[in-house]
């Protein structure tokens, strides 16, 4: 145990977050997402598992330690539901509430189509798979800096 770190934080996730630098991105994906095939193309090459967490809970755990990037058009992205554009589903609305509270001044949250999400996640640092069962419960978080 360490002081100030949520005891539910697995060592592998903490290690991944510490290895990320400014501008690196982590994909937080649901249980239906092709996590291992996507992760194979990432910098870390692996999936970090976070069983027992919904996507909003996983994002909250991550954002307690990871600063989001306010210097880009979107420091966080959510996967759009096919055919719905940027209309959020309940899983997105829950996560957006967490992200809005954690986003630094000047930062923004955006949405991204499913196929574009796959490509962007594959170019990221790592993939974190939670046990979110709601479809399209996938997000990308971009690491900022601490001043």
From TrEMBL:
The keyword Cytoplasm does not apply. InterPro entries: RbsD-like_sf (IPR023750), RbsD/FucU_mutarotase (IPR050443), RbsD_FucU (IPR007721). The keyword Transcription regulation does not apply. Keywords: Isomerase. Pfam families: RbsD_FucU. It comes from the Bacteria. It catalyses: alpha-L-fucose = beta-L-fucose; beta-D-ribopyranose = beta-D-ribofuranose. This is RbsD/FucU family protein.
């Amino acid at each position: 145990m360490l002081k100030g770190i949520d005891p539910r934080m697995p060592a592998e996730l903490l290690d991944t977050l510490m290895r990320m630098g400014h501008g690196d991105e982590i994909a937080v994906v649901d249980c239906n997402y092709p996590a291992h095939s996507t992760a194979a193309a990432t910098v870390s090459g692996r999936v970090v598992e976070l069983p027992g967490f919904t996507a909003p809970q996983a994002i909250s755990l991550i954002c307690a330690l990871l600063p989001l990037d306010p210097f880009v058009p979107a420091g966080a992205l959510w996967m759009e539901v096919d055919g719905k554009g940027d209309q959020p589903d309940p899983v997105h609305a829950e996560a957006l509430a967490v992200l809005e509270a954690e986003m630094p001044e000047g930062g923004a949250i955006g949405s991204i189509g499913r196929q574009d999400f796959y490509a962007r996640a594959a170019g990221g640092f790592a993939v974190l798979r939670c046990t979110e069962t709601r479809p399209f419960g996938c997000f990308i978080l971009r690491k900022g800096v601490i001043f």
